[in-house]
Amino acid sequence: MADGIKNKVAIIGMGCTKFGERWEMGSEDLMIEAFKEVMEDAGIEKKDIQAAWYGSCFDEVNVGKAATPLSLALKLPFLPVTRVENFCATGSEALRGAAYAVASGAYDICLALGSEKLKDTGYGGLPEMSTAMGTKNRFIMPGLTAPGGFAMMATRYFSKYGISPEEGKKILARISIKSHKNGVKNPKAHLRREITEAQALNAPMIAWPLGLFDCCGVSDGAAAAIVCRADLAKNFRPDPVYIKALQIAISSGEEMMYTDWDGTYVQTATVCAERAYKEAGITKPREEINMMEVHDCFSITELVAMEDLQISERGKAGYDVMDGFFDIDGKIPCQPDGGLKCFGHPIGASGLRMMYEMYKQLQGKAGDRQINDPKIGLTHNMGGFPAMNLISVCIAGL
Fold it and tell me: In 3-state terms, what secondary structure has residue 394?
């Protein structure tokens, strides 16, 4: 009977570029920057890589749906390379492909790399979701934007749980304040400046109640991982990080077709988290998870993710936020690297960037933002919008 990939695959190297407006670099340059770090970190040579998975979402920069940009940029002749795209979980999908290939026994060592030159596409952050998600959706969801979709989730959440607009805005502001405080300590982050509650509350409105600091930015970046068979990992380094679970779930869109879903949670995330915890053998997430990187495309997304991941009770995540439960020195630090709020969201790279932080934290190499003795870290990637989406949950540990 299938039992997943728990402890069958180890991460022995990771690399991550600085995220930001990298106008001086092309997509290939970003791949090379991440690749150089991951190879040095893993202590291997190109000839040791047996297969690669390359994640990139937008075609304006890369040619078609081919995998050749990675082979050309990294000079990997005749290597089997697969290009993957799964919207905002593209980076996680690349890691899943490499990890599953190793777990299957087909390969011993594989590369996963995600890269996106988002600034060069002209992507301004507010395109219609119907355009981004395909022609058919223009008829189903005309005019829907990501801020608009998540703003509706925020107002519905406030209404269901009896939270006043003023109180709700303060909770969302506290989430962003926490992430920006963490991002200041990360030299690879795009936005490295603390913000105050007044700045967050009085920022220009994007889609009420989401102001400017409730929304992540647009940036360029790349990240990479080298994975290998778990039994070989300590041949390469003394502190490998083991994958405990890697799950992806995709909605069929039924949430928006029926009245069972009330708009205050992400059903796909709830299902995906349950599968990941089962694979990892975790029964009490609030007690067993030590840190998280979640998909904070908007502050409300992070708030709801706390409940979808079974860390906070339904309707109670706001109390945990205000109590400092998710602060860097709290019980379960969330976004210790600053999250999407500070890194932006170059789509193909984000999932691997999240794992990069968990990897460094688990090894005790996160510098000024180091968490005290973490053993288990979780990443949560979301694509789409509240009523139709895809989710990746990856759990890694020592």
Answer: strand
